[in-house]
């Protein structure tokens, strides 16, 4: 199944979190971790505002931690974000 966002929306697959900190401390599964606000663009809608952003499938973007709607398709988690939820492109 493919997701096709409508209007000024983009589908993003959030990047997975690493299990160790920068200093090398391994975090157990019981630690409450914050979700990263970075992900990979999977699909882009055809709205006027989203096309002005110049996003391409495969771009890495930053978005607000609690922005968008979370959906699960075929056991993969995605976020559907509006054009205003996309903060920056990581290059």
UniProtKB/TrEMBL annotation:
Q: Which HAMAP family match?
A: CH10
InterPro entries the record matches: Chaperonin_GroES, Chaperonin_GroES_sf, Chaprnonin_Cpn10_CS, GroES-like_sf
Please give the function described in this protein's UniProt entry. Answer: Together with the chaperonin GroEL, plays an essential role in assisting protein folding. The GroEL-GroES system forms a nano-cage that allows encapsulation of the non-native substrate proteins and provides a physical environment optimized to promote and accelerate protein folding. GroES binds to the apical surface of the GroEL ring, thereby capping the opening of the GroEL channel.
Q: Where in the cell is it found?
A: Cytoplasm
Question: Which GO terms label this protein's molecular function in UniProt?
Answer: ATP binding; metal ion binding; protein folding chaperone; protein-folding chaperone binding; unfolded protein binding
Q: Which family does it belong to?
A: Belongs to the GroES chaperonin family.
SMART domains hit by this protein: Cpn10 (SM00883)
This entry carries the following GO cellular component terms, namely: cytoplasm
> What are the UniProt keywords, alphabetically?
Chaperone, Cytoplasm
Output this protein's name. Answer: Co-chaperonin GroES
Self-association state and partner proteins as the record states:
Heptamer of 7 subunits arranged in a ring. Interacts with the chaperonin GroEL.
Name the principal localization, coarsely classed: cytoplasm
């Amino acid at each position: 199944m493919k997701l096709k966002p409508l209007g000024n929306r983009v589908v993003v697959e959030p990047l997975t979190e690493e299990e160790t900190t920068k200093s090398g401390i391994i975090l157990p599964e019981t630690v409450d971790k914050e979700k990263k606000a970075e992900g990979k663009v999977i699909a882009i809608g055809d709205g006027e505002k989203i096309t002005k952003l110049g996003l391409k499938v495969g771009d890495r973007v930053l978005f607000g931690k609690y922005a968008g709607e979370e959906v699960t398709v075929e056991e993969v988690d995605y976020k559907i974000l509006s054009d205003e939820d996309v903060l920056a492109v990581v290059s």
